[in-house]
Amino acid sequence: MDSQDCEPRGFLTFDGILVYMQKSTIKIDVTRDPQKMISGIHWNATDSTAETDQAAKAMILSFWDGQEKSAMRIDLWTKEMMIDEMGDFFYQTMMVMADTYGRATQQKELAEDMKQFAADFYKRSRELLEKQ
Known about the structure:
Blueprint: E1 11-14, E2 17-20, E3 26-32, E4 38-45, E5 54-56, E6 58-65, E7 70-77, H1 83-105, H2 108-131
C-alpha cells in the first residue's frame, strides 16, 4: 500500500462520501513554574463545544514532515501527572494510534498487533506499579 491509498488530508469520510473539512485552530497554553517545570497545560479549539480552555496533565503532539520523512513531536506533562495516569495515557494513546493506523492504511492485522502490544504494555505497567 502506498501513500495514494490513504484517505486524503483535509477530508473525512461519511458513509463513503468524502466531505471537505473546515479550517480549525487549536490553541495550547503551557505554564511553567519558577523552576521551569510545567505546572499547567490548557487548550481550546475553534470547533470545540467547550466555552473555556480545557486543562490537561499531559499531551503528545506529532507532525509528519513528508519532505524529510521524519516525525516531529512535542511531549509535555505536568509535575502533577502520576505514574499510573501516565500508564493510562500511553495505553489509550496507543489504542487510538492503532485505530487511526487501521483506518488510514486498511492494514487491520498490524493495527490489531499494535492493540495487543498496548494491552501487554498496560498489563505490565500495572504489575510494576503493584511492586512499588
